Each structure stands twice: as structure tokens, then as C-alpha cells.
């Protein structure tokens, strides 16, 4: 079976050895974000950890003394992110990798007016939160002519799922946004990586009442994602089996649709 990770190894050569990497990770207090932070920290990297829960960030910092810069913030707040970015760059230097991982998932139905606020929240965090996380780092990384901006999207972005309109739409938007950003930064030395996980065993998925095939532990998913980043992948589905599931759902949907042709 061919790999679902597409990219070029040239990206890896521009990154420093892992033990001296500087990273920024949003949503770093739990779930996949925490697993990614730990994976890098265990190999000697320095991490700027963004998350709302200060106590969990402090616990991570205590686990890795001198290696974690804690920034309790909400990714919807661009001013707070700008201050954190300026502080981290001043103290540790321009990051080699910025991972926009923060995200939420809630059930939504368009017919209910009370769900409008949930739609707004999901889009603000999952899409605009990614933009706001990247924004203050783009110019410094471009000036340094190196590094990777990594966005955590989802297989849910391949096909709209019933009862998850906000989440599916936000992840589809994230995928398209990252495609646009990749073209904008072409030739700058800064790569843009799209990671699309399937089901990961976290508090978020624990609420799902339906079967979740090919589920991965956060630590396993994080290790696979880090390998994808290191080998220069630009787009990667984790695990690869979920790429097949996503494609089949998409093809089934297209076959059910009636093609619109102009009348003559």
C-alpha cells in the first residue's frame, strides 16, 4: 500500500538536530498536544506550550525543568499570542516548528438556534485559532529561511459528517487554508505541513457514541506525526488506513450527487 504522506525530504535538512529544536505547540495541556510536547521534550527540545489551563502547563514544566515555556492563553486571542510569540523568540529564538493543534469538537445541528454559538466557537478555535497561532511566527521564520508550520486538521475534513457540521466544516477549512499558506510561502524556506488524524483516544473522542475504527493512543499518533514532519511530508493522514476510509466516504458522496450541467 502506498504512503499517504506526500512531501520532499529537503524540508528535513533545514531543521536542526532534534535535541536542539525549538517548538511552539498550541493545545499542549492534554490529548494529542500534550503527547506531541512530551515526544519532543523527551528528546531534548525546547517547547513553548500554549493552552488555557495554566495548572496543566505548570505540571508539564515541572516534569521537564528548564525546557518548557508556559503561556496560558486562548488561541482566539491574537494579542496574547503575539505577546507569547515575542517573549519566546526573545528568550529562546525563532522556532523551528510551530504546531497549531488546539481544537474543539461539539455536536451541532443547524435547525437549533441555540447551536449557533457552538458553530461560532468551533470555527473560531479550529480555523481562526490556527491562523492566529501562525501569524506572529511567519515573518521571523521567513527571515530565518527555515522551519515548518504544522496544522492539525482531520479526516473529518474530507467529508461532512451528520451532527458534526461545525467540526467537519472547520477541518475542511483548515485543510484549504493550509494549502493556501503553503503556496504563499513557496520558496521561502518555510514549509507548511497538513496532518489529518483519524480517531485518537482522548477526552474528546471518549464522548463519541459510535464505533471509531483504527483508533490510536495519543503517544502513538504523536510519534507518527513527528516522523512525518521530520521526513518532510507536506500532507499526511494518521493512521494511513483512515485515508482509505475518508476517500471511500468522499467517493460514495460524489456518486450520490447529481452533476449540474448548464442547460443549452
Structure characterization notes:
The protein contains 8 helices and 8 strands. By secondary structure, it is of the alpha/beta class. It has one domain (6-256): NAD(P)-binding Rossmann-like Domain (Rossmann fold, 3-Layer(aba) Sandwich), CATH 3.40.50.720. The protein is globular, with a radius of gyration of 18 Å. The protein has an 8-stranded mixed sheet with strand order 1-8-7-6-5-2-3-4, sandwiched between helices.
* Secondary structural class: alpha/beta
Characterize the largest beta sheet: strand count, sense, and whether it forms a barrel.
Answer: 8 strands, mixed
CATH architecture: 3-Layer(aba) Sandwich
Strand-residue proportion: 15-25%
Order of helices and strands: EHEHEHEHEHEHEHEH
CATH superfamily: NAD(P)-binding Rossmann-like Domain
Q: What best-fitting shape do the alpha-carbon axes yield?
A: globular
Number of helices: 8
Number of strands: 8
Strand arrangement within the widest β-sheet reads 1-8-7-6-5-2-3-4
- Taking the alpha carbons of the first and last residues, their distance comes to 44 Å
Output the radius of gyration.
18 Å
Q: Round the mean pLDDT to the nearest integer and report it.
A: 85
Which descriptors would you attach to this protein?
single chain; 264 residues; Rossmann fold; 8-stranded mixed β-sheet; 8 strands
Amino acid at each position: 500500500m502506498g504512503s499517504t504522506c506526500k512531501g520532499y525530504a529537503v524540508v528535513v535538512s533545514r531543521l536542526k538536530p532534534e535535541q536542539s529544536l525549538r517548538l511552539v505547540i498550541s493545545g499542549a495541556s492534554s490529548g494529542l498536544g500534550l503527547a506531541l510536547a512530551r515526544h519532543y521534550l523527551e528528546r531534548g527540545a525546547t517547547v513553548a506550550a500554549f493552552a488555557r489551563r495554566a495548572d496543566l502547563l505548570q505540571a508539564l514544566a515541572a516534569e521537564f525543568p528548564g525546557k518548557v515555556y508556559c503561556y496560558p492563553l486562548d488561541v482566539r486571542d491574537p494579542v496574547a499570542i503575539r505577546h507569547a510569540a515575542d517573549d519566546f523568540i526573545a528568550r529562546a529564538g525563532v522556532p523551528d516548528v510551530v504546531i497549531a493543534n488546539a481544537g474543539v469538537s461539539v455536536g451541532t445541528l443547524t435547525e437549533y438556534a441555540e447551536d449557533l454559538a457552538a458553530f461560532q466557537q468551533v470555527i473560531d478555535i479550529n480555523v481562526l485559532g490556527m491562523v492566529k497561532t501562525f501569524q506572529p511566527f511567519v515573518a521571523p521564520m521567513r527571515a530565518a529561511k527555515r522551519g515548518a508550520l504544522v496544522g492539525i486538521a482531520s479526516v473529518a475534513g474530507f467529508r461532512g459528517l451528520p451532527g458534526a457540521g461545525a467540526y467537519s466544516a472547520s477541518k475542511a477549512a483548515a485543510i484549504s487554508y493550509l494549502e493556501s499558506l503553503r503556496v504563499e510561502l513557496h520558496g521561502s524556506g518555510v514549509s507548511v505541513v497538513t496532518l489529518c488524524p483519524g480517531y485518537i483516544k482522548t477526552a474528546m473522542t471518549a464522548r463519541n457514541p459510535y464505533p471509531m475504527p483504527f483508533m490510536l493512543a495519543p503517544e502513538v499518533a504523536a510519534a507518527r506525526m513527528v516522523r512525518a514532519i521530520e521526513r518532510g511530508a507536506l500532507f499526511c493522514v494518521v493512521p494511513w488506513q483512515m485515508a482509505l476510509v475518508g476517500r471511500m466516504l468522499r467517493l460514495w458522496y460524489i456518486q450520490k450527487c447529481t452533476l449540474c450541467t448548464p442547460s443549452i
